[in-house]
Amino acid sequence: MLEKIQHYLHEVxxxxxxxxxxxxxxxxxxxxxxxxxxxxxxxxxxxPPEEKKATGALLNxxxxxxxEKIDASKMAFESSLSSSSSSIDxxxxxxxxxxGARHPLSIIRKQIISIFSRIGFTVAEDxxxxxxxxxxxxxxxxxxxxxxxxxxxxFIEKNPDILLRTHTSPVQIRVMEKMQPPIRKIFPGRVFRxxxxxxxxxxxxxxxxxxxxxxxxxxxxxxxxxxxxAKEMFGEKTEIRLRPSYFPFTEPSxxxxxxxxxxxxxxxxxxxxxxxVEIMGCGMVDPNVLDxxxxxxxxxxxxxxxxxxxxxxxxRYQIRDIRLFFENDVRFLRxxxxxx
Length: 340
Ligand SMILES: [Zn+2]
Known about the structure:
Bound molecules: zinc ion
Strand order of the largest sheet: 1-5-6-10-9-8-7
Mean pLDDT: 90
Radius of gyration: 41 Å
Oligomer: single chain
Helix content: 40-55%
């Protein structure tokens, strides 16, 4: 009996599984109910009492060795599975990485900033929640001006009035309050109006305004600057025209039209057969506005302009509904892939 156990001890010690499945076969061979170990323990009952001590000790040693071998073998296969490079299929195609697109408003905003930065304008940005002074009063809006009405402006508080800015002009005021001319800045940003949402109008939209204040800044400087912008933005053949208009903060004030991008001035649906499309408001800064910001209007003059980024984007990309910009429909946004 002792020899038999010695034989199995030797067999167990020299055993090495080649595949994970062999470990289970090994376990079944020795540890199952009809396995070698069970057989040996059955024989153990029939041996003479004087042999029991030595045989029992050896039998227990065999049992421990078998269990150790099974545990070690299982562990070896588990760790080799997790670290083995053979389990990674290097020929499998990689997951597709979807490249997004810039939002059309970001594209146009970037282009406008780039065009003006080439002639020395730098960007200024500020808060979207404003007080009455910066949004209206400093900009020469009279007390009874309709823009102050609840129907046009989204108020957060009344007396004192705190509101969502209706244009980016308050940033012009904040810049002029802080610095003396020469000032040459553009003001991109989000603005808010209390308007019914439709294909043509939204309660949120984006503007880029511009301001140039220095000695001897004239209307001719403004006209040439805006012509430069129009040609850079819409193409070398673009022409501009200025029509008289009114804004509280500029005097004189104008609306600028450009030749229709679609028909080139011949007349089409987009330009309502006039050959021209309106793209911005502009004018010479009212001396009252300069004085409100402690800039001496006897020494300095300036011009200002403002345009809606949505309007430019709608013209440029022939988008007929302003709501598309805010709906985040990927079928719409995907179309701007590759546009810079
Ligand atoms: Zn046209």
